[in-house]
Amino acid sequence: MKLNIERLTRDELIDLYGRISAALDACESRQIARKAKEEAARIKGEAGESGKRVSYFNPTNRSVSWNGRGRCPHWFKVAMAQGRTPEELAAL
């Protein structure tokens, strides 16, 4: 869109200036939000890698696993009672 600003009245120029300022502010806000989102994702990614939880596998059925959160499954308790260690179940 081509606009001949030389032909606009003072009031039209003031209105145009206000709309341009608002558009620039909105653009800057979007850029700041995008950068903040990228930074948060980067930080979360770094923290997420170091805080990964181990999955423990059922020694009799490897397709059954437990991530260590929530209630301890029966097969895990049985394996512990049989003398297995959590590290052994994680390494299966």
Folded structure, characterized:
Pfam families: Histone_HNS. GO terms for molecular function: DNA binding. With 92 residues, the chain is mostly helical. It folds into two domains: 8-50; 56-91, no CATH class. The protein is 60% helix and 4% strand. The chain contains three helices and two strands, in the order αββαα. It has helices at 10-50, 74-81, 86-91; strands at 56-57, 65-66. A two-stranded antiparallel sheet has the order 1-2. β1 and β2 (65-66) form a beta hairpin. The model has no long low-confidence stretch (mean pLDDT 87).
Using the CA coordinates, give the radius of gyration: 30 Å
Shape: rod-shaped
Helix content: 55-70%
Largest sheet: 2 strands, antiparallel
* Subunit arrangement of the protein: single chain
Mean pLDDT across the residues is 87
Total of DSSP H or I helical runs spanning 4+ residues: 3
Report the uncertain regions.
none
Number of domains: 2
Percentage of β-strand residues: under 5%
What's the N-to-C terminus distance?
Answer: 66 Å
Q: Output the helix-strand order.
A: HEEHH
Structural class: mainly alpha
DSSP strand tally: 2
With strands numbered from the N-terminus, the spatial order across the biggest sheet is 1-2
